[in-house]
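REQUEST
  id: r-88c1
  op: predict_structure
  target: NADH-cytochrome b5 reductase 2
  payload:
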Amino acid sequence: MRPVVVSSRTLVGLSLACCLLLVLFMAPMGSGSPPPQRPHAGAACNGSIAQCLGEEHFLMDSETNRRMLQQRRYLTPNTFKPDTAVCDGGRAQRYNNCLPPSSNKPHRRCNTYERCR
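RESPONSE
  id: r-88c1
  status: 200
  body:
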């Protein structure tokens, strides 16, 4: 059997490649902190928003607002009647009674800003 001859250049290249791979594999482990624990998607959380979501609640603005609105202690009119319109304009009517009362005084002209009728 003949001995295998390896040039010094090949040996240096192999050792550099091994060192690079070792550094790449060890970099994620060197952070020192464990990965964040997330609750299971199906699990219910009975704590506050901050307890359930941790720091993620700053990233989910609409979800946070929805949960805060659910915690109100009062109900608005027609909350449980999703079929009704917000204003009582009737069928094929404009929403005239949604507008506030006229702010136009008799001596001024009416414009869009004052929302006069």
